[in-house]
Amino acid sequence: MARAKVQFVCQNCGAVTPRWAGRCESCGEWNSIVEEMADTGIGAGPKAAKSSGRGVELVPLSGETEDAQRVVTGIAELDRVTGGGFVVGSAVLVGGDPGIGKSTLLLQAVAALGAAGRNTVYISGEEAIAQVRLRAQRLGVADTPVRLAAETNVEAILATLEGADKPDLVIIDSIQTLWTDRIDSAPGTVTQVRTSAQALTRFAKKTGAAVVLVGHVTKDGQIAGPRVVEHMVDAVLYFEGDAGHNFRILRGVKNRYGATDEIGVFEMASGGLREVANPSALFLDQRDKGASGSAVFAGMEGTRPVLVEIQALVAPSPLGTPRRAVVGWDSSRLAMVLAVLETHCGVRIGANDIYLNVAGGLKIAEPAADLAVAAALVSSLTNAPLPADAVYFGEVSLSGGIRPVVHSGQRLREAAKLGFGKAVTAQQPGAENIEGIDVERHGALTDLIARIAASGRPRESGDEG
Ligand code: TYD
Ligand code: MG
């Protein structure tokens, strides 16, 4: 008998090495390399696949195309992120921390589709049928025509799906529990996850069903992260949120059929996930008006304006190297704003401990938040509360200037709609006027900072801010 070939696979990045090592040379992760049987069969790479050596027809770039057909769930926040529904014949990965609500969201999606007369299948590899039924009862969707199975073997799943009425949407919950006969490694290892995902992706392409793969993301290298699956699927969505908050954000990070900068906002309630059509109202709900260190940023998430509170706390530091803690924003961007404040605006802030937080667990990637961050920092430093009805947006340049940002009209309209009367932003010749909102425009950060600092008051002990 031929000896089975073993290989060593990094569970973090999927790199294959002939020898075990304590640290993966490819991604630098420690203790992530595990011994696995070499792949054979599906997904085993060019050597194992049999090629007939036939040629393919070469076609011109221009030609007949059709718009992608989509399976629209009717859950608007989900459809927005997928770009208007799951594309027929595509594979989608939905990743997220365990317990964040992936199973809940997808069960709600199949139930909504089932109620609309579409053919859906939910395959649970983690929970028994009874558990899925209990959840469906809790969500109030138990009587929708969704077909269920609890199975983890890929060949069995494929045989079932091929035998059943052609499904429009198949949920596989989760990819980490799957195993295929063709590989000896344990479920959850990179080889198993990759091979299983490949087989299911191929099934989607072949039959025209949309297949959603659920993947847990863990920081721990033991369970293969869905990273290895990302390049194989047509779209990758991440479901985010933190334990302290009820709302969840579905974010597109890859989409071959749509934009990736859209987010869907949900709230986890006792009856499942509720759509949040107006996230700004939610993010500003708990705002402490009149406290120093708080600025409202008028941001954009994809095509949608979102208002969110930025909180800063600047406190004298007892340490030689002051602390910097940032949640929801880029810490190197914070360092840049601090340097501009010191250098161009004469604000002595660098020796303080600085904490910056984007309220509600939202992550902001836009440079447009620079101005709101600068305003919040100076507001906290000088104990000068910012006007409660003002929003801030604008990019700060290294020379201390304030630059205009895209979609300023939409940002202003959203602010006006939510009852804000004032916006502070960059100078922009020819900018339109929005009714109900007074726009204060500054060319340089210095002017604005001097204004904020002038309204500061000495901090009394026990004073909050
Ligand atoms: P779940 O969908 O099982 O998460 P995942 O599949 O991402 O691991 O969600 C589990 C959490 O959601 C659990 O902690 C309980 C909570 N939850 C609610 O608050 N309300 C509900 O109606 C449901 C079904 C779950
Ligand atoms: Mg789950």
Strand % is 25-35%
What topology, given as strand order, has the largest sheet? 8-7-9-10-6-11-12-13-14
Count of domains: 3
**Count of beta strands:** 23
Describe the structure.
It is a single chain. This protein has 465 residues and is an alpha/beta fold. It has 3 domains: 6-37; 70-277, Rossmann fold, CATH 3.40.50; 282-454, Ribosomal Protein S5, domain 2, CATH 3.30.230. Helix content is 25%, strand content 25%. It contains 11 helices and 23 strands. The chain has helices at 76-82, 102-115, 129-139, 154-163, 190-207, 227-230, 279-283, 331-345, 370-381, 408-417, 445-454, and strands at residues 6-10, 16-17, 33-37, 70-71, 86-87, 91-96, 120-124, 147-150, 169-173, 210-216, 235-240, 247-255, 263-269, 272-275, 294-301, 304-316, 324-327, 352-358, 390-392, 395-396, 402-403, 422-426, 438-442. It has a 9-stranded mixed beta sheet. A hairpin with a 2-residue loop joins strand 13 and strand 14 (272-275). Helix 9 runs parallel beside helix 11. The longest helix is centred in the middle third of the chain and has 18 residues, at 190-207. It is globular and about 75 Å long. Residues 41-48 have low confidence and may be disordered. Thymidine-5'-diphosphate binds at residues 96, 98-104, 135, 138-139, 268, 270-272.
Q: What labels would you give this structure?
A:
465 residues, alpha/beta, Rossmann fold, Ribosomal Protein S5, domain 2, 9-stranded mixed beta sheet, 7-stranded mixed beta sheet, 23 strands, 25% strand, binds thymidine-5'-diphosphate, binds magnesium ion
